[in-house]
Amino acid sequence: MMGLCRRAGELIIGTDLVTKKLPSKKIKLVIYAENSSQNTEKKILDKCSFYGVEVLRAQLNSDEIGQAIGKSGTVCVVGVTNESFSSKLKTLILTK
Q: Which residues contact 42 (CB under 8 A, 6 or more apart)?
């Protein structure tokens, strides 16, 4: 589902890009990897809390998130900008 979201152009990839886009209110959901560093986790949780954006910890590590979106390497944080994709991803992550 994350790969489909990326191909649709509704996925922001990377901690820095996600945190820069949060004030614009375009991001509907932030997902971060279970093996994210404590600094990354705190930064994302604090920013999402401040801007009122829902955040979920995926049961995937950063390599698996990278694979899921078709990107070589590791990806710790992604932001979903589409409401439909975000609700479907929430359902999939929470039922795992």
A: none
Pairing type for strands 29-32 and 54-57 reads parallel
The Cα 95–Cα 44 span in angstroms is: 22
* Sign of the torsion angle spanned by Cα atoms 92, 93, 95, 96: positive
**Containing domain of residue 45, as a range?**
2-94
Which CATH number characterizes residue 19's domain? 3.30.1330.30
Q: What is the mean pLDDT of each run of 10 residues along the chain (96 residues)?
A: 92 95 94 94 96 93 92 92 92 78
Cβ proximity of 27 and 5 under 8 Å? no
Rounded to two decimals, the pTM is 0.91
Q: How many domains does the chain have?
A: 1
Cα(21)–Cα(35) distance, rounded to whole angstroms?
23
